[in-house]
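Q: Can someone sanity-check these two? First one:
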Amino acid sequence: MRHDERDDYRAWLWSTVLLIGLLGAALALFVAYPTLRNTYQLPQARLVTDTVVMLAAGIVALLAGIRFSVDGRRLDLLLCGGFTAAAVSTLTFSIGPVLGGHPLHPTEAWAGIAGRLCGWALIAAAPFSRRRTSHRGRALAKMLLGVAIVLALCWGIAAKAGPSLPSLSSDRGDDQPLLLMISLAARALLSLVAMVGFGLRFRARGNDLDRWLCLGATLALFAELHYLFTPLLATGSISQGDFLRLLSYGVLLVGVWRAIRHAEFGRAVAEERARVAREIHDGLAQYLFAVSTHASMLESGADPAKTLAQLKEAAAAAQQEARFAVLALSSAGGSAPFDSALRRYVDFLTADGQLEVELEIQDGVRLAPDEQIEVFRIVQEGLANARKHAHAGRAEVRIEERAGERFVSVIDDGAGFDEGGIAPGQGLRNMRARAASIGGGFRLVSTPGRGTALEVVLRA
């Protein structure tokens, strides 16, 4: 662990110890003074509390499922399954039955307790899973199907037990059924396991998500401990444990959302690296390869006069390509205006007088950073083809907006070609791929002896 990561872990550890101390002191106060362990007969508030918890658990499950579909970590798969079980059991067994003002029957209450217990079992197992899954869609479908089967079994077992199940309607703490106490203690134990597991993961990996999950599990642990000492009225009461449970799910929601944002940032960085690598490969690397080839020819005894001239030409082209790449990448990054970079490129290209280029960029037309680099390369490829292959003397480049759409066109007066008579080259395929990568349409029209026109239509 690096020094800064170790300091971060120590700061988190001491803050967690402080939180546990404060929550433990509050719990001890409630245990020592039973009069403080109040429940409030607020059926509507209980319904609102359960609804908020259900929605928070569902959102956490959805975000964890999105993370799993991207990264394939079993940690996210188990989190998705656990919070799905918690959300569905709360909706099915706690919210749905009382919407019409009906009381909650023991069968539904105990099925909900069992369903949430199964959900927390998956959550507690999550921090100890370190593998990835290749078949992500299939694994996610199996997990959700498994959760549905488990909840159905919970309902079936509770319905079969029927009248033998103890009632949860008493408002006296000493009347809580032993089975309920065991269930609450099991959930508290699972919350403790999850807290320790995510804490160990954060110590080993320094992952921000593990820190938030550990905090959420800590709050869930003390919520379950409060339930152990507070009468649990299933139909219309709320207690201190309910507020801790709400806070726990809020913390979990924030943590998973932060993880999703971090994953998006990491993916954007990876895409930017791939784009820069493609620019180097498609441009500068080709000219450097030509320089290396001519140098090898000199070593092999080729004619120095002819080879040195070719080597000098290749080196000059590599230098020019490096300038083009810097201009393109800097404009895409926002450190240089796109139109200035494109005009400088045209100046470089037309410096020897072999090609005349008219560049027109309509005022008010804006290109996103990802569009700038691709449009730059498309224009570069189009003008290079006009100069090298079509032997054009004049070309026009226009970037404009018409009827709510943005158009990029390159038109030359070169030799042209028969579109149906030749196979598309790599340059044409690259232009199509670049246009597609920014969601644009690509169209090329060429007639032998009458030049070539290419057009890119960008999204609004």
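And here is the second, same format, sequence then tokens:
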Amino acid sequence: MAQPFLRAVDTTTTNGRKLPVGNGSGRAPIIETELYAADRKIYPRAVSGWFAAWRWGLVWATQLVFYGGAWLTWNERQAILFDIAHRKFYIFGLVFWPQDIIYLAVLLIISALSLFLFTAVAGRLWCGYACPQTVYTEIFLWLERLIEGERLQRMKLDRPGWSGRKLGLKAAKHATWIALALWTGFTFVGYFTPIRELGTEVIGLFGRTAGDAGPSLGTWETFWILFYGFATYGNAGWMREQVCIYMCPYARFQSAMFDKDTLIITYDPERGEPRGARPKNVDYRARGLGDCVDCNICVQVCPTGIDIREGLQYQCIGCAACIDGCDQVMDRMGYPRGLIRYSTQNALEQKLTHREILARALRPRVLAYTAVLWTIIIAAAAALWLKVPLKVDVIRDRSVISREVAGGDVENVYRLMIINTAERSRVFDIEATGLPTIHVEGETHVTVPSADSRLVPLRVRVHVGPGVVAPGQHEIQFLVHAHDDPSVYRREKSIFFVR
């Protein structure tokens, strides 16, 4: 793909005017400077080790939750379901309504603070181990290695020219990628449309005949399955490191959360330099060499293709593949591990011990993040634990503010939206308080089905005799409580008008 470039003309100044520098031809030389390096396909080498095991452990954990969570059941329904059509979110035993938007805000705050905390302590842990881009890239790379072979085999296969074998391997790889991507899109949509119903609709596409009136896949469901599948296929199969380097904003602002005591992946130049190849059983110190054998394994295993020996770079996603690769080389050479390791800039400069590095991790910035984060988590958990499974909204009838009825009473009309967030049907009693002689006319014992709502019209009357209630507006309260459990109640304020 052609890359943009900058055309620059070398000039000098004489008598206040800029003139081209002559080159004997009377014309200014044209200097072309590329703004971006040409695209270079990266072939990450497979690596094993402690950090690779952690990374794959989190791949399994996150995907078991993602792919399996949609199939769990709870109270004869899908355990995790974001039912946008009916404006209800189910998460196991909890039912959230639009009025519970505060919990989404709290979740976003907790996620942001967690990211700040983890980044301040140990850099891009999220990117290297749990980010969906990293996770799916790992899975797609594993499938690529399974079909096309290891790094050198893939590089050989991608040389110019086509053969039947190459065409077959490429077709098999992309068919596998597309199948996984579509399954991922199907699972994603399954959190918004009950996945068993969605599966029946998808299967019906292949078994449908003309005039069949069975379940059909909706337009929006089809769009999102294809869109999310295409995004997964494109990001993890084709774009990979480009997403991390150019598209992800975190790569650009991460430095604002780093300091010199943040654990990052570092190369120890004092120990490793000067680098150079050498036989295993040679006194490399006598030759003036450092521990780095210049094997480039750290570059070959890097999913973004950087050389960690050049120092901290924003392209580094913190996956620690270079640590595992370097440690394997050190083991083969009989050198101590840790030429590339998790460390801090202060540790390298001041030669700090592990104990001193850990002690500096508990700095004011980290303690502040931790305190605020746990305060919010505990408060949110307490709010969820004490959450009353009832919501009430009071709506005044604005067509008639106040009217007189028989017996000298004044009547105001209201509508109560009663939302039963418990997953069992309940009977609620309705009362009104706040004024003498206030009483409710209408249905005061209301049955609301499980996880459902009901709009109840009510007429509230007050006797307005001399010296009882003055004209004007008065604050009243509606008390709605469960008939079988008085602890489940809501008290909502409103205004009663007297002419």
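A (reply): Looked at the second one. Residues 390-498 form a domain with the Immunoglobulin-like fold (CATH 2.60.40.10). The two ends are 78 Å apart (CA to CA).
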